[in-house]
Amino acid sequence: MVSPSRQCFARAFRHQPVNRRAMKRSRASLALMALEDRTTPTVFLVTNTGDMGTGSFRQAILNSNATPGHNRIEFKITGTISLNSSLPTITTPVRIDGTTKGGQPGVVLDGTNAVGNDIINGLTIATNDTTVQGLVIESFNGSGVMIVGPAAHNVVEGDQIINNSGDGVFIMGTGADHNQVADDQIGLDGSGNAAGNGANAVEIMSGASHNTVSHNVLVANVGAGVWIHDVGTSKNDVDANFIGTDKAGDTNLGNGTNGIAIGFGSDHNTVDAGNVIGCNAGVGVFLFSAGTTGNRVSDNFIGTDWRGKLALGNTSEGVDIADGANGNTIGGRGWDAGNVIAFNGDYGVMVDGSSQNAILSNSIFSNVTGGIGEFNGANNNLPAPTLNSVEFTHGRATLSGSLGQANAWEFLQVFKDGPTGQVLIFSGMVHTDSSGNFHIGLHCVARGDELTATATVGHNTSQFAADLAVR
Asked: What is the pLDDT of residues 400-418, one digit of tens each?
């Protein structure tokens, strides 16, 4: 695709999310690898589907826990392991891989019979550097996988985590850092049927930080697709997931509340890199409460597929910022930083009782109530621009309008309606005269276009200006 110019950026057309986790090792990292312990890991084999005893998965975990180093648990069987009680907590680094030769999960951990007075999780990880791969984890009365801090650099990858009473993956506590949940189906079974968990697909809380949730299908769960909360829970990244629909992007498999919720003081998290967030019963992305600050939502498709064409609207707003969640960014000043926010059941973006929230470079269209709604002093009541006229002189278009302050600089973005949504055509600082008026040249404007605009001052962004028809 040709890189967009500063003058004309067709924001509605976007590439499909790509895997950004494959990175080339630097020479420095290769040098460090030469110093690492090259000891061959101890391998423990699972040779039967029994609940306990020699050759069982339970015994393999016990043996691994008792053996220092980075171990492996491998399966010489496929099929279902029906558990009657909780498995041992994993306390020594281990790689558990149930993947078949075809690359699919080949071992089922079934917790249907693992009942009692306690909450029983499928797997509980309380160590570092553990990988859980190629398992179906289902029907536990707790969460499918629980990572409890301090537990860092663990990976849950390529699993199906379905029909559990709690979360699909639950990451909690100080020191539960730099863990990855990647390429999993959480709430979707191997046949593509809804099999949601009883709470959230992924929950991150109580100080867990720097965790990554990427390239997953997170659907049909009773709660949210991703729920991040609490003071000290920060710098987590949610990228390139399908949240509320499958990878085809044409099936309603919405989660029961929000696509993504971040609240109760969780800060500086990112939601980016092409998440498709649609069909959820609440808000696409919900940011709320005091201290929920510094979060960035950019480069996503909220209420539509990754082409920006299909209606996959969330029942409520596309993005909702509420109850004192100040200092967050929806989009960004870069021309390619914005989100496509369309077809949602209320506003595209609503800000309520919160300030210093920048809403920039997004393509916001076809939402039921409107584009941007601001209430209860939101964004310091910054007034929207007024667009007065467009004049054509020697093929050049000049837009005249007014802003809220005289002799002041404000950041202005101008949009036009395109064939597949809203298109950003101007982005930059504008200086007003003594009457608060401005005049700017525009490219890519023709008679018959509909224009609108936002103003941003001090990280507060206004609502959209009333549309101006170019005549």
From this structure: 999 989 999 999 999 999 8
pLDDT digits (tens, 9 = 90+) for 105-148: 999 999 999 987 789 999 999 999 999 999 999 999 999 999 99
CA proximity to 318, closest of 357, 273, 372: 372
Q: How far apart are CA 301 and CA 58, in angstroms?
A: 42
Measuring CA to CA, how many Å separate 396 from each of 7, 368, 386, 411, 428? 13, 35, 21, 22, 18
Edge-to-edge strand ranges of the sheet holding 276-277: 79-82, 107-110, 135-138, 160-162, 185-186, 217-218, 242-243, 276-277, 301-302, 340-342, 363-365
Measured in degrees and rounded to the nearest 5, phi and psi for residue 461 equal: -110, 140
Q: State the pairing for strand pair 202-205/169-172.
A: parallel
Q: Are 107 and 81 a contacting pair, CB within 8 Å?
A: yes
| Domains in the chain: ranges and CATH | 113-381 (2.160.20.10), 386-469 (2.60.40.10)
In the numeric block, which tokens belong to residue 380? 């310091």
